[in-house]
Amino acid sequence: MRRPDARPLYVQVEAILNDRIVSGSWKSGQAIPAEPELAAELGVSAGTLRRALARLEQRHLIERRQGRGTYVAQQTSQQALGQFFRVRNLAGRPVDPETVITAVTTSPASEEEARRLRLAPGEEVHRIDRSRVFEGEPRIAERISLPAAFFPNLTLPLAPKQLGTEIYVHYRNAHGIIVVQAEENLSATAATEADAAILGCPVGTPLLLIERVTFDAAGRPVELRVSRLDTRAHRYAVEIA
Amino acid sequence: MRRPDARPLYVQVEAILNDRIVSGSWKSGQAIPAEPELAAELGVSAGTLRRALARLEQRHLIERRQGRGTYVAQQTSQQALGQFFRVRNLAGRPVDPETVITAVTTSPASEEEARRLRLAPGEEVHRIDRSRVFEGEPRIAERISLPAAFFPNLTLPLAPKQLGTEIYVHYRNAHGIIVVQAEENLSATAATEADAAILGCPVGTPLLLIERVTFDAAGRPVELRVSRLDTRAHRYAVEIA
C-alpha cells in the first residue's frame, strides 16, 4: 500500500496539473477546463484549485487571459527572452539577439557537465557552440550542453538565423522539454584567443562569465550553458526585491 | 477638490499601510492590528486588506508569524544579507562578510551619482569606501554614495567590525530609511592598482563590477553602490524562475 501523500493538497493538485502539461495531455496554447469543472473532477475546493493554478501561473506554465479563461502557456521567443535573457544596453534597454550556431557535436560528458547535469559517467551530451549578435556585433560566445537522452535526434541548423525562434521554444516543440527555471553563477574572466576571434575584442578583455543550469517543469537539469558576455557596451541586469 | 484615486483599492490600502511603516507610526517589530479590526478601520473588505498585506509581505515590510499574528518586519542583518547579498563560494554556499570602512567623505555629487540618485546639480552625497572580507580574504572593494539630504549627520565608525550590523539596518535604525528594492547592472572590469591593493590580486585581474541603485519603501533612490568582486574563489548567484 502506498503511504498517503504528506504534501499540502494544493501542491499535490499542482503536481497533477503540471504532469498534464509536461506529458502533453494538455497542449501548449490550449484552454484548460473551467475552474468549477476542474475542481469537481479533482475533488478539491475552489480555493485549493486556485492556489495550485496560481503556482502554475507563477512558473509560467499557464496564463490567464482577462475575461477569456486560462490557457496552457505557449512559450514564445519573446516570452523566453523576457524571462531568461538579462542583457541590456547602456541605456538600460533590452536587446534583440540573433543566433549563429557554429557547431553541434555529441560525445561523453566532461566531469563538469556530468556533475551539473547529474549524469552517470560516460553518458553523452550534445554540445552546441554558438554566438549571439546584437546591436550589430557578436557579444556572447557560448556553449550549450544537453543530455543526449533528453534530446534524441537533435538537429539544429548550422547557419545564421535559420533557427528563427529561441532555443527554449525548440526544446519544447521538438523535444517536449519545458524549461521553467534556471540557476546562474556569474564571475569575471579574461577573453581567450577563441573568445577574441568570436567577439572581436583584444585577448585579455574582461568578460562576464555566466554559468547556467536550466531545469524543466519536472525539476530535472536539462541544460548547462556557459556564456561569455562582452560588457564593453552591455550589462547583465538583476532586480532584487 | 481632489480627483478620485484611480488605483485599485488594494493598492491604495497598501500605500496607506506603507506610509504608516515608513513614517514610523507603525514601528519595526510591532504587531499590527488584527485583520477584521484593520479592515473595519479602513472601510475595506477582508479580501482587499489581505491582498494589500500580501503585497507588503512580498516587499518584506511585514511578516506573518504562524499562529501569532502579523508584525512590522524588523530588518535584521541576516534578513538584509539574505535579500541583497548574492555572493556564494565555489561550493554554492553563502558567505558571511565582515566590513571594513576606510573612508567617509561628503561632497557634491558627480554627474553619474546625480543621474542615478536623481539629484539636482550641486547636491551633496556622502561616500563610504569600504571592503568586505569573507573566508579570510578581502573580496569586494566598494563605494557607497548616499544623498546627504536623506542621511543628515551620517556617522559611521571607521574601524573594522565596529558596525556590527549590515548597513541597511543602520539606514533604518539611524536614519529611518527602509530599503526594499535594488536594481543591479553587472559587467566585467580589470583590477586597477587601487583594487589590487585592496583585494590582493594582480593589476588587470578580471573583476565582477556590480552597479546597484537601491530604493526605499517610498520608491526613492537612496543609495548608489559600486562593488568590485574578486571572483577567483566566489560567484554571484542568480535564480531565474
UniProtKB/TrEMBL annotation, chains A, B:
Record-linked InterPro entries: Bact_HTH_transcr_reg, Chorismate_lyase_/UTRA_dom_sf, Tscrpt_reg_HTH_GntR, UTRA, WH-like_DNA-bd_sf, WH_DNA-bd_sf
Gene Ontology terms describing biological process: negative regulation of DNA-templated transcription
GO MF term list: DNA binding; DNA-binding transcription factor activity
Residues covered by the HTH gntR-type domain: 7-75
Protein name as annotated: GntR family transcriptional regulator
Annotated organism of origin: Roseomonas indoligenes
Keyword Transcription annotated: yes
UniProt entry keywords in alphabetical sequence: DNA-binding, Transcription, Transcription regulation
UniProt cross-references to Gene3D superfamilies, sorted A to Z: Chorismate lyase-like, Winged helix-like DNA-binding domain superfamily/Winged helix DNA-binding domain
